[in-house]
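Appendix B: a complete holo record

For completeness, this appendix reproduces one full record from the ligand-bound portion of the collection. The bound molecule is flavin-adenine dinucleotide. The inputs are the chain sequence and the ligand SMILES; the output is the full three-dimensional arrangement of the complex, encoded as structure tokens. No fields have been trimmed.
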Amino acid sequence: MSTIVIGAGLAGLAAAHKLQDSGEEVIVLEAQPHVGGRTRTVRGRFRHDQPADLGASFIDLGQDLILQVCAELGVTLTPRMELFPRDPDGRATGASPLRNAVVLDGRLLDPAERDRIADEVRAALDAAPPLPTETLPAWAARAGLSPVARRVFLAQTGTNPVEEPWATQMAHVHPLHIGMACWMIADGSDSLAHALAHDLDVRLEHPVRLVRRDGRRMTVESDHGSFTADDVIVATPVTPTLRIGFDPVLPEWKVNALLATPMTQGGKVVGQYTQGREIKERLGLAAMSNGPIGVIWARPVGPQDTVVILGLVPDRADGVLRDEERALEALDDMVRTVTGVTPRRLAGIVQDWTREQYAGGVVSSLDGDYPRRPALLGQAVGPVHFAGEHTAELWETSMDGALRSGFRVADEVLQRRRARVGRLSRTR
Ligand SMILES: Cc1cc2nc3c(=O)[nH]c(=O)nc-3n(C[C@H](O)[C@H](O)[C@H](O)COP(=O)(O)OP(=O)(O)OC[C@H]3O[C@@H](n4cnc5c(N)ncnc54)[C@H](O)[C@@H]3O)c2cc1C
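The structure of the chain with flavin-adenine dinucleotide bound, as generated:
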């Protein structure tokens, strides 16, 4: 029996890997000239082979599946790190990220002022507990935050998710469930995708345009050929999925679930600098700003005292993401402001996920009916199955969630096989 997987991101590759291990014939059709999807690593642009992750970076404590898969495939991680300090009582809340270095309107807040703001936000979170679906500005107004605390609090929507404050709900920032203990993949995030793709039949530069049902068989048409199989796994992000044609058309509930799931918009700016040890020591865990770059952090210091600094850039339609020099200068400014060091930038790269047609943005924005929507997004329509970070029941929007969805959908296909074998043996 055979399956076609559309999309060679972590979800599609995890599904194909599991199906092939179970004896299924699998072909993966990928639009891009490389595997990995939103885990993309650039190698060879920075000195000493230091990698630059243009998409996902962090694996968080509790993301046990990805930790297990990395261990099984021999994918090594960096030493464990923290991105945010905890509140003084040990809790991780919406105030915790404000205890890192904060740049407000281009000025580094002094630590006492910053801690006072974080304490004010924490007291307000306790006094006026937010509803998960309340937007950040709505809660900040209701909780009566002072003007400066409000501005600092709203700045964290440039970190995770990379989104505008008015489009971000409190469930994303409080309580805080990421960044307290995490790892990166030592030689770049897409190493995991490469390890999963090893031994798989992946056809690159095969953008899929149409999925058609012909009786019991499925036909998938890409720009470079037509393929048939018993089942199809659609492992593409929300927006690219809406651009694939389905015959028969997808039911209304599926289309509505996709349409109700916008993607956050933004990108990443990455620079390699001299004076690595000094920068890393002064930067601390991470630094956040209300400028063009929401947050910056450092990879481990490399040879000859070089360091790679990564920044998330929310797409505020201010043109920064589309102007490489402006984005890199903004990164230089932020490194200088936060550390007081004026290092030499050796190389830099900017990645705009908003304009990537086969990504459609950064991650799905599962606002509102959080628990229900991944179930609808992930539900199969006959022999057409759906995977991807947006369909994960746990750790949605992350690499771990993408893997989970891939394994879930592989189980679904295998279950159909068993059911079919059962039916055939009963009719004999
Ligand atoms: C800037 C950024 C930072 C992030 N940070 C983190 C982080 O720190 N930690 C974390 O866990 N996650 C992070 N993520 C999210 C993480 O990258 C994703 O959740 C995960 O990689 C999604 O995997 P996926 O397989 O669902 O989708 P994708 O990786 O998007 O894979 C889908 C694949 O489908 C292909 N495709 C699309 N359309 C077609 C078509 N018509 N035909 C054929 N192929 C098609 C695409 O090219 C792509 O390869 C980040 C993402 C971004 C962009």
